Amino acid sequence: RRNNNRRNNNRRLGSRRTSAVKMYDEDSLTIKWAHIVEETIKGPLINLIVKAAVAAASFPKRCILVTTIFSLFILVGGFVTNFYMEVQEHKLWTPQASMVAKHGQWIESGDAGFPINRYTAFMLHTDGKENVLTLNGMGKLFSLIEMIRTSPGYQQICEKANIDGTGIDENGNVTCMISSATEFWSHNRTIFENNVTTNEQMLDILSQETYPSGAPVNRGSLFGYVATEDDTYFRR
To answer: What is the DSSP letter of 229?
Structure first.
């Protein structure tokens, strides 16, 4: 009798726990959403896959023909609608409604006046209190160029980018073209330090209208808006 009473009590307690858990689960949002997904998506999707598999097994030739025609139709539709695959990261991941995307579209549209073939430029900026046309400023420029030229993979990139064969250094090696005031000293710090000891000497050289190679100097791209004396020499 005691055993029977224990069994009955356990059954009652278990039924209560089961009903409580069931009521809690049925009222939870997760269970409701699972039922919705299973009834509206999972069931029809499985039925569609089963029907497609039965059709492919029953009519294999027709299935292959329909698949081929559909693929050709998609291909022709892509050519007609000028479809292309976008791989540029700044277009894929940048929000199209952001100011960054709008600025990029404005630059690439041609309305801004920027050239189509652009290059990356590194510039030294100051707060206006210090003159960069000094021995110290030129030394920083040499350090920056040396850091870039000694970076891993720099030479391999230059060899791939040098399509027209113009990137040749003083030793005849293929390299990237550098547009910098350091060209007055062949981008060589040793030549600069051996020949220039004062700011006045450096300014005299920078004021030249041609490089030692005879190529003309584009002051606007090198120095920006600078103060000069008689439009020739930099103001000391």
So the answer is: E
- What average pLDDT score do residues 114-142 get? 73
Distance CA 176, CA 187 (A): 12
Each residue of 163-178: pLDDT tens digit?
A: 555 566 666 667 777 8
Within 10 angstroms of residue 226's Cβ, the number of other Cβ atoms is: 15
Judge contact between 181 and 221, C-beta under 8 A: no
Residue 161, pLDDT score = 65
- Locate tokens 């999972």: which residue? 42
**DSSP state at residue 120:** -
Contact residues for 55 (Cβ-Cβ < 8 A; gap 6+): 63
Q: What is the DSSP letter of 184?
A: G
**Over the stretch 56-66, which tens digit does the pLDDT of each residue have?**
899 989 889 99
Coil, helix or strand for 210? Answer: strand
Q: Kindly report the backbone phi and psi dihedral angles of residue 233, in degrees, each rounded to the nearest multiple of 5, phi listed first.
A: -105, 145
CB distance 176 to 162 below 8 Å: yes
